[in-house]
């Protein structure tokens, strides 16, 4: 949260580093979703840490010291950015307190930390938004909300995290084998349950990915793109926000690797090369908000149809969990109603399209690619627009596209209702 040191029993505060980061975010138009953690060593009750950077995971020695830090930081933000801006942020308390790796206290001690923090935030400005429990594996939601209700503790929203590997024990030496045991659509099922437990509160997943393994080769492949697109569209009816973890492979919870493709969590490599997962979000961003019903059923294929103004986009995924049956499929789509006055454009993500990891292997998998090679990888990662044939018969439109295993196809039909 900032720098806090103890000098002759006096706590000294510095928010200079945080200012550098937040100034840049706000200048770009990004509003922070603030996680208030971990515990500064100067006020921690113990020396237990996690990760390479030594994040302290113990409760505060005295809650009053933690409250003083939160108060000073919040007042600093309000002074620097103004109440109107800070009121548009979200504040969640701690990170995964249900896991001993991240919180050595009890559940009750976390609830007390939450109570103390939430009240300080509301004292600074009653319109600031605060929530929790920021747990892993969709845990503690009911218990947390019951505590807040019974003790009159402010809570404006619910946050939690999940990964498909949660149901088989998290990261391990063979993530692919674990994922092979996971039911298809597991994150949709979990989000549906969390939605019921959250009740009328807004629900935000502030961490998720295709697995919880920081060195999972599938993170770099088209598999991840298909998983992401399917999961986001399935979860959208249950969640108010769905925050992918994380944006870049510049990420040092463990050692910092030099390989461009090492299975990191990020959407971008350490050189800024967009992975297929990044391009999946690019396709999702281009979708409309008006969704149309789709008929049909298939064990690995899913189809969505969404409208933006006069354009209709059909998004298809062919996805299965690792080591499960999946094959190349010829997908035939029929649309009823509307006469396209424009063209149909196809964009793909699969092993042969928007796939920089394949280009990296083709150039010999250099550990330290040159600037020119990085440029070539960025070029290989791009989405390409292809024309696709449409058959028209009265009020019916038909088209067909082949979809390899673990692939996305996005088809935009222009001027459908003009």
Helices and strands, with pairings:
Layout: E1 3-7, E2 10-14, H1 16-27, E3 33-36, E4 49-50, E5 55-56, H2 63-81, H3 83-86, E6 90-93, H4 107-124, E7 129-135, H5 141-150, E8 157-162, H6 175-179, H7 186-198, E9 202-208, H8 222-235, E10 241-242, H9 276-285, E11 290-292, E12 301-308, E13 311-318, E14 329-336, E15 344-349, H10 356-362, H11 371-381, E16 386-387, E17 391-393, E18 396-403, E19 407-413
Parallel strand pairs: 3-6, 6-7, 7-8, 8-9, 9-10
Antiparallel strand pairs: 1-2, 4-5, 11-12, 12-13, 13-19, 14-18, 15-16, 15-19, 17-18
What does this protein structure show overall?
The longest helix is centred in the N-terminal third of the chain and has 19 residues, at 63-81. The protein is globular. The chain is 29% helix and 23% strand. The strands form five sheets. The protein has a six-stranded parallel sheet with strand order 3-6-7-8-9-10, with helices on one face. A six-stranded antiparallel sheet has the order 11-12-13-19-15-16, with helices on one face. A three-stranded antiparallel sheet has the order 14-18-17, with no helix packed on it. Helix 2 (63-81) runs parallel beside helix 4 (107-124) and helix 8 (222-235) runs parallel beside helix 9 (276-285). The chain is α/β, with parallel strands linked by helices and 418 residues long. The mean pLDDT is 94. The protein has two domains: 3-290, Glycosidases (TIM Barrel, Alpha-Beta Barrel); 291-413, Immunoglobulin-like (Sandwich), CATH 2.60.40. It starts with a strand and ends in a 5-residue tail after the last strand. The protein contains eleven helices and 19 strands.
């Amino acid at each position: 949260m900032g720098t806090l040191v103890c000098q002759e029993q006096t706590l000294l505060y510095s928010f200079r580093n945080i200012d550098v980061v937040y100034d840049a975010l706000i200048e770009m138009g990004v509003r922070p979703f603030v996680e208030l953690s971990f515990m500064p060593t100067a006020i921690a009750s113990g020396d237990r840490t996690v990760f390479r950077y030594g994040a302290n995971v113990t409760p505060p020695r005295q809650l009053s010291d933690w409250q003083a830090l939160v108060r000073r930081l919040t007042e600093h933000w309000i002074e620097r950015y103004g109440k109107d801006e800070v009121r548009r942020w979200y504040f969640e308390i701690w990170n995964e307190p249900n896991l001993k790796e991240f919180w050595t206290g009890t559940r009750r001690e976390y609830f007390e930390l939450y109570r103390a923090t939430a009240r300080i935030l509301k004292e600074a400005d009653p319109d600031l938004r605060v929530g929790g429990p920021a747990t892993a594996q969709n845990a503690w939601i009911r218990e947390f909300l019951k505590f807040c209700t019974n003790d009159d503790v402010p809570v404006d929203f619910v946050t939690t995290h999940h990964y498909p590997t949660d149901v088989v024990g998290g990261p391990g030496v063979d993530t692919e084998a674990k994922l092979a045991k996971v039911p298809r659509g597991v994150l949709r099922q979990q989000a549906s349950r969390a939605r019921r437990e959250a009740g009328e509160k807004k629900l935000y997943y502030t961490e998720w990915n295709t697995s919880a393994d920081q060195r999972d080769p599938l993170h770099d492949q088209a598999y991840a793109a298909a998983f992401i697109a399917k999961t986001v569209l399935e979860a959208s009816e249950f969640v108010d926000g769905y925050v992918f973890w994380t944006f870049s492979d510049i990420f040092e919870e463990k050692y910092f690797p030099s390989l461009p493709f090492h299975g990191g969590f990020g959407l971008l490599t350490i050189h800024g090369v967009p992975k297929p997962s990044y391009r999946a979000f690019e396709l999702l961003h281009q979708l409309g908000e008006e969704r149309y019903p789709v008929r049909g059923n298939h064990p690995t294929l899913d189809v969505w149809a969404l409208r933006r103004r006069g354009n209709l986009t059909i998004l298809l995924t062919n996805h299965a969990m690792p080591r499960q049956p999946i094959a190349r499929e010829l997908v035939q789509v029929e649309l009823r109603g509307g006469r396209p006055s424009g063209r149909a454009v196809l964009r793909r993500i699969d092993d042969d399209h928007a796939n920089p990891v394949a280009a990296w292997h083709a150039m010999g998998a250099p550990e330290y690619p040159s600037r020119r090679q990085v440029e070539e990888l960025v070029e290989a990662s791009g989405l390409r627009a292809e024309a696709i044939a449409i058959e028209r018969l009265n009020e019916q439109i038909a088209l067909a596209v082949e979809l390899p295993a673990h692939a996305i196809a996005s088809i935009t039909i222009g001027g459908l209702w003009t």
